[in-house]
Amino acid sequence: MNNIDIELVKKAVIKRDKSANKGTFGSLLMICGSYSMAGAGIMAAKGALRCGIGLLKTAVPKSIYPIFASCVLESVYYPVDETPQGTFDKYQAPFLLEKAEESRAVLMGCGMQNNRDTYFIAKSFLEKSHVSVVLDADAINAVSAEPELLKTAKVPVILTPHPGEMSRLTGLSIGEIQSNREAVAAEFAKEYGVYLVLKGEGTVVASPDGIALKNTTGNPGMATGGSGDVLAGMIGSLLAQNPQMPFECACAGVYLHGLAGDIASSEKGVVSMLPTDLIECIPKAFLKCNL
Question: Residue 162 and which of 227, 230, 243, 254 are 20 to 30 A apart at CA?
């Protein structure tokens, strides 16, 4: 299997012309967070911003808007009605789809919680979205009981499962997945017509045409809650800037995420580094790649 290389990363990162404005670099709609999991969305948002998105738009349940907005100053916000549990209400799906049409890509799932409302919103986007979609975390879990939904999408869809989520998607055991990561990722991507990022040591990025590449950056210090949310934000940001290249954007996000983690581990150590340290090292990763 071939590895993700720096030249592929550079293809996904668009150049910054002097005459550019925020519209040049796209807009990303994030649908993330819930009453008990605001942090997941916040880390995804910060990962997205550090990857150069022109405008970040964030839909959040109303109850977490104050804490979210105080942590992420650079976003536009859509505080929406929520369930009694503080999660997204399925009846907000039409509004969210309307706002998606004003963006170049959508990221959903980080901290949403896995319930029928999340399922309904994810299903609505797979069936009706006209812009590319990144599904992470609970958005993946929500559709895992009905993966055939993925085939209804008319736009590029990127999934970012860890082995446990991949197990729920495929019905395979984690052991079966881990013993044959490349083939499992490639076969799933091809069967369902999606771009798949199978996270873990040597993250595999697979495309619908059967191409699969392995990542060589990253370290065990990234094996902590929140690292995946940062990655989802990074991929969503790159995709919104360059929506014609979903595979390259997924690969670039994975490579830069791992490189930022390697830089963070050199500064903090693999035991003490945090996902927030990783976020702060994203600019250093770009600089190291001469981007």
Answer: 243
188: three-class secondary structure by DSSP = helix
| 85: CB partners within 8 A, 6+ apart | 34, 35, 113, 115
* Count of CA atoms in the C-beta half-sphere (13 A) of 38: 16
In contact, 140 and 159? CB cutoff 8 Å: yes
Q: State whether the Cα torsion 263-269-275-280 is positive or negative.
A: negative
Separation CA 28–CA 38 (nearest Å): 18
- How far apart CA 188 and CA 203 sit, in angstroms, is 15
Write a three-state SS string for 26-48.
CEEEEECCCCCCHHHHHHHHHHH
> What would the two tokens of residue 247 be?
């595979």
Q: pTM here?
A: 0.98
Extended beta strands in the chain, E state: 27-31, 55-61, 76-80, 105-108, 132-135, 157-159, 195-198, 204-206, 212-214
Neighbours of 243 (CB within 10 A): 17
Contacts of 186 (CB under 8 A, 6+ apart): 204, 206, 210, 211, 212
